Here is the input.
Amino acid sequence: SQKIEQNSEALNIQEGKTATLTCNYTNYSPAYLQWYRQDPGRGPVFLLLIRENEKEKRKERLKVTFDTTLKQSLFHITASQPADSATYLCAGTAGGGNKLTFGTGTQLKVEL
Amino acid sequence: DVKVTQSSRYLVKRTGEKVFLECVQDMDHENMFWYRQDPGLGLRLIYFSYDVKMKEKGDIPEGYSVSREKKERFSLILESASTNQTSMYLCASSYPPGHTDTQYFGPGTRLTVL
Here is the structure.
């Protein structure tokens, strides 16, 4: 079955550094990948979307890449701040359909 | 701004009770979804709906049913609550196919079944 996998270990980084989170997909070819942020006890919030024919997408301090050879997306937060601490979810869809397949998320902690 | 609201943030029920969780979206979205989220298991899709009165099973529909009588409202029903249904329940909505399938989530309902 189609799977989205994210590193379940928390990522701890220092303020000001770049955080890089990984998302790998197996058993299908998503037409696009999406990244969401989830704070404790809250619903996920959409951040960015990248299509399979796009190599890279940016939005302010966020950057997402899509490598169809490696079957992987990387999510970068540059100049990270403590307010960026949250769990980040990757989700994929084959397109034209309505369901997303979500990864279990990676918790990011940005320390002073 | 898209707004998805859920009827309760916290709910405590007893085993065997019938439980209704309601979700309302204000963006005229065609599609609505119910998930549950548990530590280590991520988001698991319970049911979704493409249109009024239409529903499809997700990955874990057992023990749940849904109702969509109006486009903006999607209800999740636990016919006879059990302790293993203690979880965070999240509702989401999205545009129809051809769009990006981006989902907009409600704040979640933390359900505890005693």
About this structure: The first strand of chain B starts at residue 4 and ends at 6. The radius of gyration of chain B is 13 Å.
